[in-house]
Each structure stands twice: as C-alpha cells, then as structure tokens.
Amino acid sequence: MLACRRFLVMTAVLGCVALAASAFAQQGGVSAIAGTVRDTSGAVLPGVTVQAASPVLIEKVREVVTDEQGQYKIVGLPPGSYDVTVSLPGFKSVHRSGIELTTNFTAPVNAQLEVGSVEETLTVSGAAPVVDVQNAATRNIISAKVLDTIPTGKTMLTIIAVTPGMAGNTAGQDVGGSKGDLMPFFSFHGSNQADSKLEVNGFSVNNAAASGRGFVPSPQNTQEIAVELGGGSAEQPSGGIQFNYISKAGGNVFRGDVTGAFSNQKLQSNNFNDTLAARGMTASTINRLDKVGDIGFGFGGAVVQDKLWYFASYRYWAAGTYVAGQYFNKLQNSILYQPDLSRPVINDFWGNNASLRMTLQATPRNQFSVHYEWEKRCDCTHLMGNNAIFQGLSAGEATDHQIFLPVDILQTEWTFPVNNKLLLNGGIQFSRPTWSTFPQPGLWSGAVAITEDTTGQRWGAEPGINSYLTPSTRHKIEPRLSMTYVTGSHAFKTGFNLMHEWGQLQTTIVPNDVNYTFHLGLPVTITQFGTPLTVRDNMKADLGLYGQDQWTHKRLTLNAGLRFDYIKDDVPAQHLPPTRFRPNAVDTPALNCSPCQSDFSPRVSVAYDLFGTGKTALKFAAGRYMLARGNSGVYNPANFVVTNASRQWNDANGNFVPDCDLTLIAANGECAALNNNRFGTINVTTTIADNARLDFRKNNVQFSGGIQHQLLPGTSVNVSYYRTTWNKFTVTDNLLTTPADYDSYCVPLPSDARLPGGGGNQLCGLYAVSAAKFGQSQSLVARTSEYGGDQTDVFNGVDVILNARLPRGGFLTGGTSTGREVFDNCFAAQQPDLTATAFTNPSVAAATLTNNPSGFCRVSPPFLTQLKLQGSYPLAWDFQIAAAYQNTPGIPIHASLVVPTATVAQSLGRPLPGNASSVTVANIIAPLTVYEDRISQLDLRLTRIFRVGGARRFQANLDVYNALNGSSILNENTNYGPNWKRPTLILDGRLVKVGGQLSF
Known about the structure:
22-stranded antiparallel beta barrel; 58 strands; single chain; globular; 2 domains; Immunoglobulin-like; Maltoporin, Chain A; five-stranded mixed sheet
C-alpha cells in the first residue's frame, strides 16, 4: 500500500504539470506514418528528411529525420489525408500523396531515392496503404463518410450494426433510429459489458461505476469513431470495447453541413404474420413506430488563418415506438389493472446536444484546444435496472421519466513536439453526468407497484428498490499526461491517466413504500421498503500508469508494455433519517478503501511484414486486462441497512387492501410476520475477506493471432483467432449453514412439445434450507481457491473481416464472426451453502446463479455466428446506392416455472420454509442451449447528389430499413404458463425514412 501511495503522490505532481500546460490533442485519436528509406542499391539511408503535410494540421507540416537504420516514424498525427515528401541532398525528392490515416493506424510509406538534384521530384502514385504492419490491435474505424453514406440511425446502436463480433442487448436492435439513442452495453469476444468504455477525444465520458453512461456523443461534430476491440497497448485501461469519438476541429476553409431525417408510423409497414399470431400476438399489439427525427448542423473555419480554428454544432433528435401489447391503466386510482386501449405505452426519447471546439497554434510547437459539449436528454419511458430499451411487461405508469441534465463535458488539450524526437501531450476533462428520475406524470398519490407472478405483468408504479432516483449527481475530473520519444526504429511512450469523482449522491424513492405481488389475480405478498434512502460514495482515484515500447527491426515490430492500475473508493459518514417503516434514524461510519486495488498488467504484441512489401502482416497479441471499476455499493455501510422485507398477505375479505398494521414486524390481521426481523436496522450479513477486497481484482487474459493481407489496391482481409480467459473469481459462503442444512428436491416439468425432450420429466438438483436455518445468513465473500475449486469463463472465436475501397469513392466493409463463451461454476453448485459470483456475461449470470438446478452449472452454448456487411457505390447521374446487412443469432429461450409448495413437498418431504406458497425455478431449460430463429435485417439507401454551385452540394436520401419486412423476435415472456414465449418485442416493420444533407 505504501507503494500505491507513492504512485498517487507522483500522479498528483504530474497532474499539476498537466493543469499548468492545459491539455492534449486527441489521445487515442492519433495516428502515424512510418517507413524505411533506401537508395537504388537497397542500402538504407540515414539523415533523410521526411515531411508529412495535411490540411488537418494547423501547423501545415510535421518533419522528422531517418535514423541509422534508415527508418523514420512521424507520430501524433490526427486522422486525415496526408502528402509525404522524402528528400536528401544529392538525391531526387520523392513525393507520395493521398495517404489516408484513420485513428491509431500506422501507414507504411517506404521510399527509394535516386541520385539526382534535390530540386527534382519523383511523384509516386498508388493506393493508400490499408495494412498496418506495426500494430496488432483489433479495431474498427467508422468515419463520418460512412455515417453519412450508409443507412443508419446515427446512434450508438449503429456501432453494433457495423462491427462483426460485437453484441448487445437484442432488444436494442435498431431500425432506422427507432430505438432512440439509448445507453446500450456491448460485449466483444468474451469481454465484460461493464468494460465498455465511451470516450470523446480519448477522455472517458462514462460515469459512476466505469460502465455507467449518461452522455451521448453527437455524430454532428464527429470526424470518426475509433472502436478498439482488443490487443491494445498498455495505454488501454481495460479489455472491453473502447469507443473513441474524434471531434471535428475546423480548418482554414469555412465548411459545414446541415442534416435532417424524418419518419413516422405512416411510413412503416405492418410485419404481423401467422407465426406471431400463433404465439399470442395480435396485429394491433405489435410494437410499431410512433416517430423518429434527427436535425442538426455543424460548421467550422478559421478565426485567424493558420492560427486559430473553430468548429460548432447542434443536434436535436427524437424517437418513439409503441410497446407491444402494453397500455396505461384504465382503472386510475385503483390497484386493479385494465388496459386503456386508447393509451398505448410509447418508448419516447429526445435529446439536445450543442458543442464548440477551438484549436490554437500558440507557437510553432505549442498547440492548444478547448472542447465544450452540453446535453439534455429524456428517456421518457424507462424501467430502472434495465440497461437497454424498455420492453414489456409493464403498463405505462409502471415506468419512470428520466431526465439527464446537466450532462456536459469541458476538455482542454495540449500538444508540444519539443523536437523531431520528443513529443509531450497533456489534457484534462471536467464532466457532470447528472440525471433525475421521476414517476410518470399524473401518477396518483396512492399508487403501488404490483406484479402478477404467473405472467410477469407489472402495473400501478415502478417496482423494486430502484424505483425512482431523484436526483443522481456526481462530478468528475480526468487529467492525463504522456511523453513519446521516437528515433525512427524505436518509439517509447509513458504517461498516466487519472479519474476522480466526488459528490456522488443517489436517493431512492418507492411509491408508498410497498410493492404487492399477485398470484392468479389474488394478493399473496407485500414487500415493504425503508425509503426514501440516500446513499453517498466517492471515487478517490482510478489511476493508470503505463510504459509502452516499440522496436522495429527490419520487418519485425515488437510492442511491449506494462500498466499499473490503482483504484481507491471511499465512503463518507452518512445519516439516514427515520422513514415510515424505519422508525429510527441510522448512522453509518466513514469507510476507507472500499475497495483499494492495485495491479500490474503486462501487454505484448508482434507484427511481422511477411514479404517486406507492407501488404501482408502476421500479428500476435497477448495481454492482461483488469475488470473495470465496478459498483462499490457492496462495500458501502449504508447498503447494509435492511431496506426491504416481505410478508405473506391473505386478503380474506377480497378488498385488495392489507387489513393489518404494516409497521408491526409480528403477524397481525391479514398479514403474516415480516420475513426479516432486522428490517430497518444495520445488519451486516455480508463481509468480504481482506484477501478478496484488497488487491484482488477480476481480470482476463486476451490472446489473438492472425494475418492481414492486401488482396487488391485498397482492399484488405483480416483473419484472426481470439481467446479470452477470465480469472480471480470469488464465492459467497453462508457461514451460518452447512451443506447438511439443505435438502435437495425435484419438481415435475409439464409435458410440452416446446420444452426439450417434450418435458414431462423430473428436474432435480434444487435445494431448500431447513426450517431451523431459514432466514439465517452471515455471508463471507472469499476467493474460490479457498473452497477447493474455481470458476472458469473462456471465449474462443474466429473473425474474417473485409475492408475494400472501391472505384469512384465506393466502399465495402464487414465480415463474419463466430465464437462461443463456456462457463463453469460446478464446484460451487454442488455445495448449496455457496453462491458463485456472477459470470462476466450478465445474461448467463441471470440464467445460472439464482435458484437453478445444480445440473445447469456448466453453460456451453453452440458456436454463434454473425454476418455483417455494409457498403456504398456511386451510380450514373449523381445517384448512389448503399446497403447494410446483419444476420445474427436469435435470442436464447428461457423458462421460469412457479411451483406450488404442495408439489415441492412431495419431493422434499416437507413444506417450503418460511410459509412460502410457492417457489420459482429461474430456468427449467439448460441455459443458452435453445434459441429463437436468427435475426436478419437489410437496410437500403438511394441517394441523389445535387450540385448547388461552388463547393456546395445537397445529398437527398431515401432509406428503406428492414427492407425484407422481417419480424424476428427480440424479446418474449419467459414465465412458463399460458403466455410463455409470447413475443413482447419484435423487429420493427419495414420503415421508409427521408433525409438530406446540405454541405458547404
């Protein structure tokens, strides 16, 4: 820990240096040009001057000199088009134009000099390089041209659509922007969705627990999106997907554009069919579009030529879709539910985004920039705890109204090339990811959240402890600094990045402090909550220190790096005032190191120019990556307050009102006793062993290997194998019970042809604690190795990716990805007093870890394959056609079963403990073994370009999304019963959208 403190002190000093200097030019959003210069005999030439010129450089030209091996490297170049000039006295100069640099791409540009006058220039023609022979990282670059050309909704969901291997919540399958700009979570090649990192100019805009999202980058001010997918250097903090939105910076020439797009339900086809009818849907209840619109502008130019540039933008967007079969409650001011067919539930999103970026060349070697972006958004029909789009089964009043304001970022950036070998970069970002969550307008004062357990239908108010958070505030500061030293064949980079959050406050409110559960329309359970509840915590430091070295020897480039990560969270002392069901105030102490974790992560990669032509590269990468900082709530003493407890409710008089005193813990009236007599008090039921809390952080080891080859000029194919292995799992041990305190039992499954094997069998491997130990819990979180076993979580897969620049400005990109992730926690499943920690894939965790048969402890899905392609090609008379196609696996089929206690008792030999009327088996189908049909979507665009005069042009777009009018199932009822497998969300029907873009 002393070493960690020294690192923090050093970081604070470096941070002051960064603050004094201002900031960095797009870290993680820069590229390089590198190569070898020889004479006609093949001998290397040291001391050759190499210049890279581009209109994206405010200083116009960057210059270096080749080293003793004849090699050079020009680093820190922003994306754009470059011209390269190579010159040496006594030789003819060589000029190469049209070098296209995308983010984090090193373009190989070699040169051969002939003897002659330096005034003579030899112009070399050829397609821009497409193979990076020095870096092994896996990435996808989505340029502004691609965003403007192919048919997409220009949302974050676009990234899923155009990146093979990337997966998110299937419910977010977008059709022309119909899902709005929601906050999806992504995974790629076995990465944890929480590791997904959203960046603007290399600064994180995630909030809270690293993976939280409140800010939506705007495509209106985006030059390109660099999607880092694996094999990253020591700069990369985690092994998940890194999305880096690179901002436009303006230039000497005034340029800009105005864009707009619109569609509504009149431009959508009905994709209802007989298959959906047989599954319980009706033509009037399928999800369909309400509206979708997007309008914005962006423009930039020079305040002072070659000195001060600016770029400004604004965007407003909105979307809404009807939720299949869901309506507001017609019986207002009542706890009973009758759908109001005149008030369907609409997923309603809207947002505003405004930005301004200024870039100043203060001196020939010092460049500064300031970027400010402000945003206000509304997720107007939202379900807490659901990180993707809201979907059934909730009536409209059982959702919340979430406003993000203020959500803004302020970045300052600085770059200083001390000389042609040494480059300094620094930067700092301030951000305020703030949101407030409210009940739906008009919710009556007596509203209570109600759930029907046989169908999962919810109404009345939003259910659960996370009902309404008003507000959730936080402030974040992120300084960073780096130094790069380049000699041509050698490049070394070292630096740090730091995040600090403070003022984190979250208040939970449950309407009327109760939830009800109904069974077949009758009340059975009351859950009581001790709310309002305000919880505070602070992130003192999320620090990364790294060193990255790159050596190029002839055709081999070795990249080796080491990263040190340190996390420190603190919790302040807190006072929780009395509430309706918690009559006494609760005070909790401050807590340091909640947790504190420090780790070293080595990274290494090799790239080999197979034939020395810059057209074929063998690539291998291996590295250790820490799991991103998670929610520290498990360590917060305020979360040890027992905030909810349940009691059985026998509504004997049928008035749907609990005729009892809910403030009493003991049984009275129609209500049984609360199932936890510690309700409202601090009950530390879970402790964490020091060796699991300190310096024990979940991580993965990633390996990749493959070949990238230039098939034709401008066309490359990349074939790669990927493996991700997760390490350092924990297990939760109930210290008050032993395996002998649990009895196993079986439940009979219904005979149903839709179940594997037709059902009708006994499902065993379920456990019930003895009545004597019911409700007794004192848990210890410890390393799995201390219990004679370990979990495993391993991904293996292969990708084949194509990138082609076609004649006349056309392009084709995409490919196929196949892989599977195998999970095993059987060592814990055989010990009923143990609970294994969640897998890295949330859908698997939900399907395997809660009241499931022990036989489902190993999850081995089939290999799942994706195909994603997109492209564009110009036609005659200024027409252009573009298309995007996706074919991805269908959703996994799950089935939870409610089993009455009488049925359980036949196998268990006794009733369920706690007077429970039933038990819910979370899944009666082996997880991830049965899937719905594949999801296929074809989107088309026809564009006509109108030349308005000079450099002005107008691009008119006619888009057809889901052109084949598919109706793939995206979500369904998983409660076994009459509504099981009834679709609650399908692919939106064929949608026509009109749009345009005026460029000047």
